[in-house]
Design goal:
By secondary structure, the chain is of the alpha/beta class. It is about 25% helix and about 20% strand. The chain has 14 helices and 25 strands. It has helices at about 15-20, 35-45, 90-95, 135-140, 145-150, 180-190, 275-285, 295-300, 360, 375-380, 385-395, 450-455, 520-535, 535-540; strands at about 25-30, 50-55, 65-70, 70-75, 80, 105-110, 120-125, 130, 175, 195-200, 205, 220, 245, 255-260, 265, 270, 285-290, 305, 305-315, 325-330, 350-355, 365-370, 425-430, 440-445, 505. The strands form seven sheets. The chain has a seven-stranded mixed sheet with strand order 8-7-20-21-22-19-23. Strands 10-2-1-16-25 form a five-stranded parallel sheet, covered by helices on one side. A four-stranded mixed sheet has the order 15-14-11-17. β7 and β8 (about 130) form a beta hairpin. The protein starts with 13 loop residues before the first helix and ends with a helix.
Length: about 550
């Protein structure tokens, strides 16, 4: 926070008086993913006691979703710890023994391997032909689907080459957590009292810059004052029912969080951790007043796509023991320039299936990947239809006599491989259509840059004299232009003091170096918590 010489009377403004009376700043964190949990935990560890985490879904974890089937754990969301040297996710997992059962095949140095390093990756065409490995390496551009799945873009052509270098790789191997990535989430949550996190609590709107304004219209329901983490009952103080009352001068708050269930929670600060996909869809209605123009532009320029996984479990493996991956190439697309398939051909975006190893842990399971617009079409299909289409693809691509070396069962070139059965179970993700995510993870889209990531992460209200608080217009608006000499004071003296850092932003899309990663999400949450910790350093040093 920029330093500011406060005048003698600024300490007597309503916000300061209210904070002194309450004794603690109230912080509301929106989202209980890695960013939100990291932020809440950091604040609590530094003495903040009035902290609430609002999670829209029925569970914590965000885009970490580990599903237990039988004795195996499958990752519908985050899968890898990307790098080890200085990676807080790695150190947390390693310190708690989560990597003790990670096999050599579940570690990848350098480029991430989608499948076990043991065995051979088999490259097949839709005519049942096997492509020699040297040909595949020579024409690696055939596998843009793999690249776009890694970036979560619809096509690799949408990824900005000039901004690609913004992303920084942490040295060391990539690791899979056999017991599930959700264990990392649970470890973070262990440091947060259960009453801090409210599940099933979607937010409708964040009303910020409320220092000199009052709600208009009917009376509004507000939580009681004091440490509301210890409230019992819905919306009221311990031992009291909900109270309907108007705001008084002594009770002004800079931010008000309006929930979908109509509860209204006043706060000093709100840390927003929702995904870039949600911001793209809802930014115009999610903030009142609207976001600054440059932040809206950054939201538009940055990219987020959908990458989904499809797990197919079989009674017995139809692939040979030496096969670790079935990679698909459509021969009739050699001259195609089309970046998008028709909806009925969505399955052509599946670039292949990887064999999950070791089978003692996972059983006989293939894992497929699909990204972009085709993933959204897949999400609209039911499990039976997806399982049927995937089975037909596997039969077609393994049906030629030249690929029988990878098949455990005999097959016919004319009929494909009819002996391949349908999977006994299918499990798949649907990140694109999930209203609480609207995508998998962010990327630097063509036309964007790392500067856009910085703009997205910038707290509100802005403190530069050149920035306006409303994104709907670039015209100067009285009371919304802050002085660079004293950023906590409005140029309009009738508005009193404006509290800084009312709305803060975190999440993987807000980390310039580590966007799209779990460690980027965690570090961004800690970053925003650090802003508030520094802001209230003197308060906590004084003690009670």
């Amino acid at each position: 926070m920029q330093s500011c010489e406060s005048s003698g009377d600024s300490a007597d403004d309503p916000l300061s008086r209210g904070l002194r009376r309450r004794g603690q700043p109230r912080v509301v964190v929106i989202g209980a993913g890695l960013a939100g949990l990291a932020a809440a935990r950091a604040l609590l560890e530094q003495g903040f006691t009035d902290v609430t985490v609002l999670e829209a879904s029925s569970h914590i974890g965000g885009r970490v979703q580990s599903v237990r089937l039988g004795h195996a754990t499958f990752e519908l969301g985050a899968t890898w710890i990307h790098g080890s040297q200085g990676n807080p996710i790695y150190h947390l997992a390693e310190a708690n023994g989560l990597l003790e059962e990670t096999t050599d095949g579940e570690r990848s140095v350098g480029r991430i391997s989608f499948y076990s390093k043991n065995g051979v990756a088999c490259y097949l065409t839709n005519r049942g032909r096997r492509i020699p490995k040297d040909v595949v390496e020579e024409f690696s551009d055939l596998y843009n689907e793999v690249e776009s799945c890694e970036s979560s873009s619809h096509s690799i052509d949408e990824v900005s080459l000039s901004a690609f270098g913004e992303w920084t790789e942490i040295p060391g191997a990539h690791h899979i957590i056999p017991s599930g990535f959700m264990r990392v989430v649970e470890l973070l949550a262990e440091g947060i009292p259960a009453h801090v996190i409210q599940l099933g609590k979607p937010v409708r709107c964040i009303h910020w810059d409320q220092a000199s304004s009052r709600p208009r219209g009917p009376e509004i329901e507000l939580r009681g004052e004091g440490d509301h983490n210890h409230d019992t009952g819905e919306g009221g103080q311990s031992g009291e029912g909900p109270q309907q009352r108007r705001w008084e001068e002594e009770e002004q708050w800079p931010v008000v969080v309006e929930c979908e269930d109509c509860e209204v929670i006043p706060a000093d600060h709100v840390i927003v951790t929702v995904s870039l996909g949600v911001l793209k869809r809802q930014y115009s209605s999610f903030f009142r007043p609207g976001l600054p123009t440059e932040k809206v532009a950054a939201i538009h320029r940055l990219g987020i796509g959908t990458t989904d996984k499809i797990f197919l479990e079989f009674e017995e493996p139809f692939w040979g023991p030496e096969c670790n991956s079935l990679q698909f190439v459509w021969e009739d697309e050699a001259e195609s320039r089309t970046l998008t398939y028709p909806p009925e051909l969505w399955y052509r975006k599946i670039c292949g299936f990887d064999v999950l190893y070791p089978p003692e842990r996972y059983g006989h399971v293939l894992s497929g990947w699909i990204c972009g617009e085709e993933a959204l079409v897949m999400e609209k299909c039911d499990d039976e239809a997806v399982a049927e289409i995937c089975t037909e693809m596997l039969r077609q691509f393994t049906g030629g006599p030249c690929v029988q070396v990878i098949c455990a069962w005999p097959c016919s070139h004319l009929l494909g491989n009819p002996n391949i059965p349908k999977p006994r179970r299918i499990l798949r993700s649907a990140w694109g259509s999930n209203p609480y995510f609207r995508g998998s993870y962010s990327y630097t889209q063509v036309g964007s840059s790392g500067a856009d990531v910085e703009k997205l992460a910038k707290p509100l209200p802005y403190t530069e004299s050149s920035k306006t608080a409303h994104g709907s217009s670039t015209k100067q608006q009285p009371g919304h232009l802050l002085s660079s000499k004293c950023p906590e004071r409005s140029l309009d003296p009738s508005r009193g003091s404006i509290k800084p850092m009312q709305v803060l932003f975190s999440g993987e899309a807000t980390h310039r170096k580590y966007y799209s990663t779990t460690h980027g999400a965690l570090l961004s949450g800690q970053r925003e918590a650090a802003r508030l910790i520094e802001m209230y350093r003197d308060l906590f040093q004084q003690g009670p």
